[in-house]
Each structure stands twice: as C-alpha cells, then as structure tokens.
Amino acid sequence: MDDEATQSAHKKPAVDLSQSGMDRKIEKKFWTARRIVYASGGSFFLFLVIYSFVMTDRGSRLNVEADKITISTVSKAPFREYTPVNGTILPIETFFLDAIEGGRVEKRYIEAGSFVKKGDPILRLANTNLQLDVMYREALTYQNINDAQNRRLTIEQNTIAVKTQLADAEYQVDRTELAFRRDSALAAKKLISDQDFLQSKYEYESWVRRRILARENFRQDSLMRINQLSQLDGSVTRLQANLEMTQHNLENLVVRAPVTGQLTSLNAEIGESKSPGQRIGQIDVLNNFKVRAAIDEFYIARINAGQKGDFDLTGTTYRLKITKVYPEVKDGRFEVDMEFDGSIPQGIRRGQTLQVRLELGDLSEAVLVPRGGFYQKTGGQWVYVVDKSGSFAAKRNIKLGRQNPQVFEVLEGLEPGEQVITSTYDNFGDIDKLVLKE
To answer: Which of 128, 193, 361, 402 has a CA between 20 and 30 Å from the CA of residue 319?
Structure first.
C-alpha cells in the first residue's frame, strides 16, 4: 500500500495542450554541428583539389634513379668541327716490279721482306728465244756498222781524188801561164812563130777552164761529203743504240731493284713462267710514310688538299695534312692521302690502322653539350634539363648546330652551367618531367 501511495504521489496530472493557449510548432535546425563539420571538411577537400588542378604542374612524371643516368654540364669552350676517319699507314712511295722480258724463273737472289739497295739483283729469268734473237740482231747490227764504215772510206777516197784533180789543175794553170807569158813576149819580138804562140795560148786557156770545173767539182763534192758523212754518223749512232738496246734486253732478264727499300712482296717461284709486263713484286721506300683514309661521301664537298687532322699514338698527338684527294667514290666513300706535318711516330709499320680526327672547320668559341644517347631519341630537338634543386629534370626544346665525336654545338635553348641528362631516353617514353631519386 505504501508503495502504491508513493507512486500516486509522484505522478503528475496530464496537461491537455490542445486545450491550452500555449499550442506552437517546434522546427528542427538544419545546420547542426555535425553538418557544419561535414561541410567544412568537404569544402577544404574541394579547395585542395582545385588548388592542385590550377596551381600545380599537370604534366606526366616518372621517377628515375639518379645513379642510372648520365648528367652533363653545358659549357662554353673552343670548338673545332671534325669527323673521325680510319687511316692506314702506307710508304710514301711504292715501286712495282714487272717482268720487262718474259721467261722462266731460273734463280731467286733474295726473299720477300728483305731490304735491298738500288741495282741489287732480285731474280733471273731464262729465255732461249730472246737470247737467239739478240745474237742475230747483234750480228746484223755489226754488219750494218761495217757497211757504213766502208761507205765512209769510199767517200773519203773520192774526196782525195777530187782534191788531187783540183791540185793538178792548179799546177797546170800555173805552168801554162808562165809559158804563155814567155811566148807572148817572144811573139811581140817576132822570135817565135804564130803557131807556137797560139798553141801556148790555147793550152793555157784550156787549163784555166779545167781549173774552174775542178773547183766546182770540189765544191759539190765537199757539200755532198758533209751530207753523206752526217747521214752515216746518224746511221752508225742508231745502229749502236740498237745494239745497246738489244744487249739491254738480255740484261732485263735479271730483275733488279729500282730503288733502295724493302721488298715487301715477291710472287715468283723457281720454274714459273712470267709473261712480259706481269707484276712480280713491289718495293716500299721506308724513309717516310703517308696515311690513306676513306671518308664518307657526305663530306666530299668539304674536303680539299691542305686540310689537317691529327691522331694519338702512345700518348703523343701527331699532325697530318691532306696532300691528295681521290675524287672517285666507291661504296659511298672516297679516299685521301695525308702526309705527316711534323714528327713521324717511331716504329710504325705498313698496314697499321689509325683513328684520325679530320678537321672540317676553324677553332671558335661555342656553347657545347657532351654527346650522348639522348640524340638518338630526340634528334637534338629537346633535352631534359636538371632543375637547380637537383630534384627533377624537365623537358626543354633546344637547337643544335655543328658536332664532333665529343660534343654538340648549342645554338638555342641552353646556357653555360646548366645540367642536362645526356644518357639514353629510351626508357622515358614521352614523359614531361623526371623526378630524380637518390
């Protein structure tokens, strides 16, 4: 009972609000604390998205390990355009040995690789037909020379006879002249008959006419004698020259060294037959050398005699100068001969190969970037330039000019001191920015 009474005491009487004058609608608030928190967070997130979209770089990126790429520094330095060419050491002069007269190889005096002096015998050929022909020609030549000598003797004898006739005519004129003068004096004094006087006169006049004819004969004989002797002398000279040449043909069976040098090849075996004009070997003059280089035909318009180049050997740089340009192009290349401009390396050998730097232009100041694999990907139109912070590298358009095997000449887009990635770009695709990771 007490409990029921207590519960009754605590119960309040119900109030009918519909009947009271205090009836009103309670509206629920929209901006609750939770909604305010959610709206603020969403706005901040949207701000971050918009900021990231507007204010930050939207280009593609790629993380790259810095130790796996090559970074080079752009510099300003003297630049010389040149192209590398392969050169071969050759003797300054090479003399070829040919068989002037054909024949069978009978003896070899020296072997290939030996050093020879001018005139040294190298090999001897045997040619029986040539020897018989030389003997016949010698006999015929000697016969012709004897005939010429006999003709000379005849001419000399004829000249002596003409001189004798002239001398006799001169004597007779003098003798008859004295008789005619004596008889003229006697005839004037009527001491001799007219017949004796006329006989003396006619004899004197006859010998005067004979003397005139003898003098003319002597003059004609002298002119003819000079002409005939001149022809005989020329004929004898030619016969003697033919004789020497005929004998020289036999001497040509012994092949001798035309110069002092090294017999670098000898293609002749004992018993082998050689025809006239056939190549049997060569001699190299080793007191000097030259370099023969093959150059790409792309440079044919830029290569001229006098251009220079250099190469390194045993730590020393040696200079070369072009002395001859061969204009013929074979397999896309043409050749030049270069001689040493200054000292010659010691111990070089025929056939030795050299890497020659052939100059294509004069020395000049230029902005330079080292060569690298990037050129194959970009064609020299753009590179990745490393930021000053060193944390990333961005793509930049550039323009390159001349080049040599070490560097490119930069015309636009780069400044001295900047750093660029010069290694290959094959793994980067078309990425705009490379993030460099340690």
So the answer is: 402
* Measured distance CA(383)–CA(380) in Å, rounded: 7
| Two tokens, residue 182 | 């004596």
Give the tens place of pLDDT for each residue, 405-436. Answer: 889 999 999 999 999 999 999 888 888 888 98
pTM of the model: 0.51
Domain annotation covers residue 14: no
Is residue 10 predicted with pLDDT exceeding 50? no
Distance CA 364, CA 78 (A): 5
Percent of all residues in the chain with a pLDDT value above 90, rounded to a whole number: 39
In a domain, 7, yes or no: no
Task: Tell me: do 244 and 209 sit in the same domain.
Answer: yes
| Angle between helix 194-251 and 128-188 (nearest 10) | 170
Together in a domain, 324 and 370:
no
* Parallel, antiparallel or unpaired: strands 103-108 and 121-126: antiparallel
Indicate whether 342 and 397 sit together in one domain.
no
Domain co-membership, 329 together with 410: no
Domain of 219? 129-251
Please classify residue 38 by burial: count the beta carbons closer than 10 Å to its beta carbon, then call 0-12 exposed, 13-18 middle and 19+ buried. exposed
Give yes or no for a contact between 242 and 180, defined as CB atoms under 8 angstroms apart: no
Strand pairing partners for 397? 382
CA distance 213 to 196: 26
Q: What is the Cα–Cα distance from 375 to 380, expressed in whole angstroms? A: 5
Would residue 76 count as lying in a domain? yes
CA separation for the pair 345, 351 (Å, rounded): 14
**How many whole angstroms separate alpha carbon 53 and alpha carbon 70?**
32
Give phi and psi for 245, each to the nearest 5: -65, -40
Residue 292 lies in a domain: yes
The helix (H) or strand (E) run that includes residue 143 is helix 128-188
Q: Do 202 and 175 belong together in one domain?
A: yes
The residues pairing with 356 across neighbouring beta strands, listed in sequence order, are 85
CA dihedral of 179, 181, 186, 192, whole degrees rounded to 10: 40
Q: How many domains does the chain have?
A: 3
Strands (E) across 331-438 are located at 333-340, 353-359, 364-370, 382-386, 392-397, 399-403, 407-412, 419-421, 433-437
Q: What is the CATH number of the domain that holds 397?
A: 2.40.420.20
